[in-house]
Amino acid sequence: MRRSSRAIRGLGPILGTVLAGAALAAPDAAMQERLAPCIGCHGNGTSETEGVPSLGGQLPDYVVTQLFQFREKQREAPPMNDVAAGFSDDDLRAYADAVATLPPPSRSGPAADPALAERAQGLVAKHQCNSCHGSDLAGRDAIPRIRAQREDYLAKALAGYKSNARPGYDPAMNEVAQGLSEGDIKDLAAYVSRL
Question: Between vectors from CA 73 to CA 172 and to CA 82, what angle results, nearest 5°?
């Protein structure tokens, strides 16, 4: 397991180099047609479907890594494993580039109440979320944007990391989540989803 996680961890820089040369232009008509089922579930930037993450604002390095993990069944998330099963490496890159053109998710609704925000900001600082996900939690390289992600999805992901039901391509999230209580997970998900 350690060896495979190191190998997968090494994918980020390699895939980043491949993707660095590609401009984030709007996908061509053929790719937009292929992307339509993705948008049907994940939304055009912002997911309106319970339990389904928003893809808007995700960087190509992160998306290509996740699609690779789905294709190789290193990450189980029906129906994504079936969707990615037939993807070539070129398909992974094309989808990642297309997804990267989606607008960041938008949040409509009230901001987190001050007490919740204070607790969650303390957790963000304690667990150094900003050191990986960026100062604004908008992600970087192969690390996802979590800012304005669906609350239910964030809570499920954190609980999955804590229980080790969701392996990361790097063990950092599983390690960080071990120190989170159910209340911490609830606070973090509520706060980050409202940014």
Answer: 130
pTM: 0.83
Residue found under tokens 């790097």: 170
Q: Residue 52: which residues within 8 A CB-CB, separation 6 or more?
A: 41, 42, 43, 150, 153
- How far out from the chain centre does Cα 47 lie? 13
Query: Hey, which residues does 143 pair with through a beta bridge?
Result: 140
The CA-based angle 19-20-26, given to 5 degrees, is: 70
Residue 4 has a pLDDT of 41
The amino acid at 55 = L
Judge whether residue 16 has pLDDT over 50. Answer: no
